[in-house]
Amino acid sequence: MMYCKHRTIFLLSGTLWLFIGIFLMTIGLRFLLSSLVPGTSVSGFSLLAYAPTWLGEGKGVRENGIIILITMALLIGYFKGKFLLSKSALREINRVTLLSEPTSIKNIYSMRYYLIIALMMVLGSVMRFLPITSDTRGFIDVTIGMALINGSRSFYRRFFRSLLGQVLPSKDNE
To answer: Which residues contact 24 (CB under 8 A, 6 or more apart)?
Structure first.
């Protein structure tokens, strides 16, 4: 079994969240941009289908709709990461901080957290089979990706504080 310091667990967890967030955001942007290609419409729920009602009729409505969807996904993802995922990360950080050091790498997350990760992976796989268009799937992926990227900041912040030798309080306003 591999053992490591708490700060290594914080670094690994933050890096994992960051890379998965970048991966999801990249996929989401590809989905959103692919919906601009003529003739790629698929039947199903589409956020972009409402663009004419948002932006009026005329030339450039789809392009402007994509820009609005990307902006909305980034904003929603930012706030989801700041207010929801950062709190979740802080719970995991505090849990790890209470463990003896060095600790097993398997303690990077709690069992409950592993179950949540598995559920999210299943939901991501199920999205392939749902009747949604590429713009809607892209919106969801960009939102989740941005939230994970923003949430990873909590782990990195704690990692760098531990490198600097600062006292790690149990409650943090990150």
So the answer is: 141, 142, 144, 145, 148
